[in-house]
Specification:
Helix content is about 35%, strand content about 35%. The protein is α+β, with helices and mostly antiparallel strands.
């Protein structure tokens, strides 16, 4: 994050008891100092404005606006829609989560699924026996592009219920036709239950 250096101009009034001439001289020097400070401030202000204009025009125009509060809410809802579509076996809702060229990568397992193959999951429409719980969102971006980092815990709903996966999502997002979608999701494994390691592809 860029930090702005704040500067303060401190004007000291020197009091002299050596006669009126010395006092007047001190006052004149103080006035000159104030005048110089004012001119310096004006020059700095002009330079700042010029720099801002140059920054806007250097790339052909102003930079895209940052994400709004509504964007943050929509992106968090996207994370929830991903989990519910997967857990409840809703193919139509799942297809709406990703862009047409979306990619999902399982980093530790060394594979990825993309495009239509990704958007066609889940195939059978049957609810899964797991619940994906995303938390701790960090969202950044501007315009129609964003990134999101989050933690995820997967809980098996079998009896007895237990945690079967803990990891992280690293997402690249894009706004398409007014809706945020996942362009690429990287899934990083922190821990996985050995009994379900072979079937992790069924619970991304």
């Amino acid at each position: 994050m860029l930090e702005r250096l704040l500067t303060a101009l401190i004007l000291a009034t020197v009091t002299c008891a050596c006669g009126s001439g010395a006092a007047q001289s001190g006052a004149a020097q103080s006035g000159a100092a104030q005048s110089g400070a004012a001119q310096s401030g004006a020059a700095q202000s002009g330079a700042a404005q010029s720099g801002s204009e140059n920054a806007d025009t250097a790339g052909g125009g102003p930079a895209p606006a940052g994400l709004s509060a509504d964007d943050h809410v929509a992106i968090r809802n996207l994370a929830g829609r991903y989990s519910q579509a997967l857990d409840l076996g809703d193919p139509a809702a799942w297809a709406e989560v990703f862009t047409d060229d979306g990619v999902m990568e399982m980093v530790a397992q060394g594979y990825e699924i993309k495009g239509e193959a990704l958007r066609s999951l889940p195939r059978d429409g049957e609810p899964s026996r797991s619940r994906h719980i995303p938390t701790t969102f960090v969202i950044d971006g501007a315009g129609d592009e964003a990134t999101m980092r989050s933690y995820v815990t997967v809980v098996s709903t079998d009896d007895p219920a237990r945690i079967v996966f803990q990891g992280r999502y690293e997402d690249r997002l894009r706004r398409v036709d007014g809706r945020w979608r996942i362009e690429r999701r990287r899934i990083l494994t922190d821990w996985i239950d050995s009994a379900v390691a072979e079937g992790v592809a069924d619970a991304p």
